[in-house]
Recover the amino acids of this structure.
């Protein structure tokens, strides 16, 4: 699903940013520590300043929330398509246009063949 970054509100950006932080934290990589290979949790969320964005989105001051929304809207398009898709799946968001006809969520009418 292609979600335009302008579609986000403060509330939806907060939801998406929280899920993004979980998705990025779930990623691990191997690192050698004192000769031993260990799995280390991903730190991309910190590198992308997600904690700061989340704090701003949760702020009581409207100007801080607006700045957090602006920061998240700038961040969203820079993420890989796979990462964005994973976040949207975790949120339960979907694109009705991409669903099968049999899927109850699609709620679409069948395409009428003009030749029939």
């Amino acid at each position: 699903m292609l979600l335009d970054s302008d579609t986000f509100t403060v509330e939806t950006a907060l939801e998406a940013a929280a899920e993004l932080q979980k998705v990025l934290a779930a990623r691990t990589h191997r690192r050698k520590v004192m000769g031993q290979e260990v799995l280390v949790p991903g730190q991309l969320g910190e590198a992308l300043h997600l904690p700061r964005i989340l704090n701003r989105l949760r702020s009581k001051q409207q100007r801080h929330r607006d700045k957090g929304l602006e920061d998240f809207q700038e961040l969203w398009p820079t993420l890989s398509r796979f990462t964005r898709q994973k976040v949207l799946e975790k949120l339960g968001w979907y694109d009705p246009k991409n669903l099968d006809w049999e899927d109850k969520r699609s709620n679409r009418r069948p395409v009428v063949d003009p030749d029939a």
About this structure: The longest strand covers residues 28-33. DSSP finds five helices and two strands in the chain. The first helix runs from residue 10 to 26.
